[in-house]
């Protein structure tokens, strides 16, 4: 059975597809919550060393005076503030200060300002000063889980089905997410966050694959899912778990591939019923006839050829595409997550900045949608990734006391990288030839997870020099834009099916008068035959 022919008969935007799009878009909510959660649960409150003198009782001192006696001042960006990691030494039995001004580390722990954050893992586990890197490690471990989850649950999705993988991931997401909230051990917390990252990514992409039931709605499903995923701060796990068991069916395409024809037919009949389409036995036989025609049009060489990951670098054009896409994905993910997680470090109220960043991304998604239709894929990515880079470089040059301007440039950078990231996902799915498209996008996505792992640690460079992280984001963004300039535009052209087709296409684009490739005549004939098949299906 040819599901593409069946799909044309069922209709592209019936009641079933609309409900499917809504339900699958909601899956992005818990996934986005888990990714953005560290901006709050790992927020860094103001802190200083715990000292007896910080309690004025018995000393007849106000709290600020007691702090001045206990904590030395340090200069940060030209301003004086109480040290966060040093204290004056105390030597006598009553806790009075020595006449000297020697200092030491916070051996008795820290005290935290609770005016904005009542509690976070930073205050719970003392992830400050020489332990600050553990906070970034916790986020990197989460991103490592996201990368592993894409591999493990991608295999499960292909082996056991999309629906069972989705339900398993949603159940585990609920279990691990709630468990992480009640752990009192940093190691256990990190392990649970790793597992949450894995199952969140598994649920996200299992739902995305179910939603791509037709070729022409991949961009809409992806962008709508992205638009939902980062925006809402509401508990959605229970809501997203039970409706999917009842209202979502297994992917008919996967059932056909797994040779479960009877189950596939039941799902197809359900879709036809909800869309109000008649699907008789005679129609099935005609659709199967279309499938046989298409199979006969496939040349023996194309049917027997086995492609592997080596084909991603076998030809000159494929090496260029693979390298450019890996660089673009790695940098885009690194800069995107860095700017999102860095929201808590911006001047102003953290919650206001977070909502502002979410609003910026909502607008960015719609801009990406429009620009891809009008300008293609390549040009919008290059333009907006350079917007992100220039904005980050400008933010790095703003003086420390002009925090509002820094926040403005940071939001402009987030706007640019959000558009670039969305465009890149669609672009990468088109630039690789059909026979190795999944391998190409998969390995690029896997490489990009290194960017997610590195992102939290780049932020630590601000302890060395405050503008350094933003400078790195700006330079890296420009490198990503430059890397994509060597790639072809994919919008509005017939996409190549094999690496050999890609080489022929590259020669034609570079030499307008070049002779046609050997298989162009065959491709034209095949296109004509496919049109005839489409007309046959339309008449059913």
UniProtKB/TrEMBL annotation:
Q: Which Pfam families match?
A: Sugar_tr
What top-level branch of life does the organism fall under? Eukaryota
Where would one find the signal peptide in this protein? none
**Main site of residence?**
membrane
Please give the GO cellular component terms listed in this UniProt entry: membrane
**Do you know which InterPro entries this protein is assigned to?**
MFS_sugar_transport-like (IPR005828), MFS_trans_sf (IPR036259)
Q: Where in the cell is it found?
A: Membrane
What is the recorded membrane topology of this protein?
Answer: Multi-pass membrane protein
Ranges that cross the membrane: 20-44, 137-157, 164-184, 190-213, 321-339, 351-369, 381-398, 404-427, 447-464
Keywords for this protein:
Membrane, Transmembrane, Transmembrane helix
**What name does this protein carry?**
Organic cation transporter protein-like
Question: From what organism does this protein derive?
Answer: Branchiostoma floridae
Query: Organism classification, top ranks?
Result: Eukaryota, Metazoa, Chordata, Cephalochordata, Leptocardii
